[in-house]
Design goal:
Blueprint: E1 4-7, E2 13-19, E3 23-28, E4 32-35, E5 43-47, E6 50-55, E7 59-64, E8 68-71, E9 78-83, E10 87-92, E11 96-101, E12 104-109, E13 113-118, E14 122-127, E15 131-136, E16 140-145, E17 149-154, E18 158-162, E19 166-170, E20 178-182, E21 186-189, E22 198-202
Parallel strand pairs: 2-6, 2-8, 3-7, 3-9, 8-10, 9-11, 10-12, 11-13, 12-14, 13-15, 14-16, 15-17, 16-18, 17-19, 18-20, 19-21, 20-22
Antiparallel strand pairs: 1-4, 4-7, 5-6
Length: about 200
């Protein structure tokens, strides 16, 4: 089946309203949106500068790097990469892999999270599974993680609460706050000459 090509024109944001399957979203350099036509029930509708997309199956889509993206509901997994515009997630029921994005704000990710090369802040209310977060240029805020959390190379402050084990490797910077709460084991790796105030809690004996 042929791909669906949508000229960018005055579109500045894409809303994924209801994706029953999985979402595979990639940024690219072209001034057009390409959707792999895997589902005859895929619906796209433009309202002013916003393109709304819904699908009963998986969605494979390429969009210009600078578009803003709001993901309201995905019932499967999601793979997201190469976005320079704002990225907001309301609800994803499966696992999420995110890389090379400007920033991330999310409410609920029910499965596992892998996030890498985030240029700004990463702020998430809830991850149901494990979280592996690497190379974040801003702050990391994870209010509730149902599983284990592993952080590596975080440039900004950290505010994380993990129900399982937690580990973090970072170089504390000035005027930053680092707070980690773990229900299990807690492992920190910081330079020996660090001069910083740390607030650390662990449920492990």
């Amino acid at each position: 089946m042929a791909d669906k090509i949508i000229p960018l024109e005055d579109i500045s944001r894409i809303d994924f309203l209801d994706i029953t399957g999985s979402l595979h979203l990639s940024g690219w350099n072209r001034e057009e949106i390409r959707i792999k036509e895997l589902d005859k029930e895929l619906k796209s509708n433009q309202k002013k500068n916003v393109l709304e997309i819904s699908s009963l199956e998986d969605v494979l889509i390429n969009i210009p790097h600078n578009l803003e993206v709001i993901i309201k509901s995905v019932n499967g997994d999601a793979t997201i990469k190469g976005l320079r515009g704002g990225l907001e997630i309301k609800s994803i029921s499966g696992d999420v892999i995110i890389s090379d994005v400007s920033s991330l704000t999310a409410e609920t990710i029910a499965g596992d999270l892998i996030g890498s090369r985030i240029q700004g802040d990463l702020r998430i209310k809830s991850v149901g599974g494990d979280s592996l977060i690497d190379s974040v240029q801003g702050q990391v805020e994870l209010k509730t993680a149902g599983g284990d959390v592993q952080l590596d190379t975080i440039a900004g402050g950290i505010d994380v609460q993990a129900c399982g084990d937690a580990s973090a490797a970072f170089h504390p910077g000035p005027w930053q706050v680092y707070q980690l709460t773990a229900g299990g084991d807690l492992n920190l790796s910081i330079p020996a000459d660090t001069n910083a105030d740390l607030s650390i809690q662990s449920g492990s004996e």
